[in-house]
Hints:
The structure holds two protein chains of two kinds.
Chain A: E1 4-7, E2 10-13, E3 19-25, E4 31-37, E5 44-50, E6 53-56, E7 64-67, E8 73-78, E9 87-94, E10 102-103, E11 107-111
Parallel strand pairs in A: 2-11
Antiparallel strand pairs in A: 1-3, 3-8, 4-5, 4-9, 5-6, 7-8, 9-10, 9-11
Chain B: E1 4-6, E2 11-14, E3 19-25, E4 32-38, E5 45-50, E6 54-58, E7 61-66, E8 71-76, E9 85-92, E10 100-101, E11 105-110
Parallel strand pairs in B: 2-11
Antiparallel strand pairs in B: 1-3, 3-8, 4-5, 4-9, 6-7, 7-8, 9-10, 9-11
Amino acid sequence: DAMVIQNPRYQVTQFGKPVTLSCSQTLNHNVMYWYQQKSSQAPKLLFHYYDKDFNNEADTPDNFQSRRPNTSFCFLDIRSPGLGDAAMYLCATRGTDSYEQYFGPGTRLTVT
Amino acid sequence: QKEVEQDPGPLSVPEGAIVSLNCTYSNSAFQYFMWYRQYSRKGPELLMYTYSSGNKEDGRFTAQVDKSSKYISLFIRDSQPSDSATYLCAGGNFGNEKLTFGTGTRLTIIP
């Protein structure tokens, strides 16, 4: 089945220690998104790629970076995680023929 | 004022009842709306996607959009315990990648 896959599902990192979360998709979608969702809050868009074009939301901290080496993969790098970065990180994709976004299962990040 | 508002609940209804979930929005530029279901500690699952005012039905689910009053609803018929989840509404407009979500309504279906 075509899908959005996120690894790992659970990640524990130490305060200030860089961490990378990964997302892959078999849908061959052009657009990939990264969202942050804290407990009982709405998902918040961090940035997205339209093909290779990177688009950052204005209020996304510089601590968050992303890479998309090819159509299938996208990475979220948190350079120096703080306690406030503990959250669920969601990857989503969409094709160019629709605005429907399809989400992966998420990575729950804990910062100790 | 948040762009998309949802009553957080929790909402508890007996199995078999009709569930009504509602959102209001303030951004008149929204051109499409989505409903997602999110189980605990999982990613959101797309349930319904509507472009225009009116009703859209898919199985037990009906999405309703009233652009004149900036009000969107999701109805679930013959509710099942497996429908217990958080339901997120979202709005967006063509040409802008940002999908704006509500905070979700937590629903429990009681067997």
